[in-house]
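Q: I have 354 residues here and want to know how they pack in 3D. Can you give me a structure?
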Amino acid sequence: MNPSANQIERNFEADLPKVPPESSFPACPAAWYLFCAADDLRRGPVAKRMLGRDLVAFRTASGKFVVLDARCSHLGANLGCGEVVGETIQCPFHHWRFGRDGRCEKIPSQKEIPAFARQQSYPVVMRHGYVFFFNGATDFYTLPFFENELPDDFAAGKMFSYQADASWFMVAAQGFDRQHFESVHDRRLLSPPLVFCPNQFVRRNQYYAEIIGESRRDAVLRMLVGNTVTLTVHNWGGTFYVVKAEFPRTCSRFMVSFRPLEDGRTHFDVIVFAPRGFAQIGLPARRWFTRGHLVAEANQVRDTHYRPGRFIAADADMIECFQWLAALPQQPLSSPFEKVLTNQDNLEPAHSIA
């Protein structure tokens, strides 16, 4: 007796990994984000609407970089309209002053400082001329960099930004979608991707592929650097990509900090890197290739949506990435805890996909 169509569908769905509901993804993951270029803070505080709230960054008189909630805990004035006074930022409304830890240090009209007079403060790192902050009271892991390489050995290019019409978790899963690499990136996989999680905060993908695209950019790429690439992708915390592309005649490196926007889209900030010395002369060209590749990809996959009921067997690698994204820790796992070092990964795969 032949099985019915409904029975076949039920058996097919039973073979799929469990697809997490959309509500399981955090609105704004606990991860590192790029706030601004350090030079932007030379003239005073900078306020931005990020991660569903108003934030302010400033540089103290001693050169320390700070990121706080921007709305004053008194009556909500935006601290970005205030000024830096010594090691504090002064509110433009009543001149309350807040230190690097967010605590109010001075109220001109009285000596007693109420307990509520405190701003949320965020861990901050300035690297290669850019200010990064961690979305949480504590950073679970250090600011990521390229695997087993040191930041001081590299120079950074000028940041570029763009936006995509997709949620942050749809964007994150693209880095682990085999079908996506072959159809959108115009790469023919020459060996199965190797995917594993060195620790609970990072997911790593590496694949070896032939560049088969017919665009002018890919034609120039094949001529200059070769027709194959080994791509190694690290996703840290869901919204921070570290990417290394090894071609026969060169190696390309870039970072992508992306963040959810309140309209459901995703904003991207990208920095391209090169070893210090002669190689950094080529940063503008590397930036051109990288920007063209990423922006074209964003245009090709715009308006994609997360539809749990529409996944098929070929989407299994995406589903496993969605499971990892939904399970990412949003609080420290223990207290006290040991911060994870991000450029010294254990390269032995804990899980691989053939």
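Q: Anything worth noting?
A: The first helix runs from residue 5 to 15. The two ends are 35 Å apart (CA to CA).
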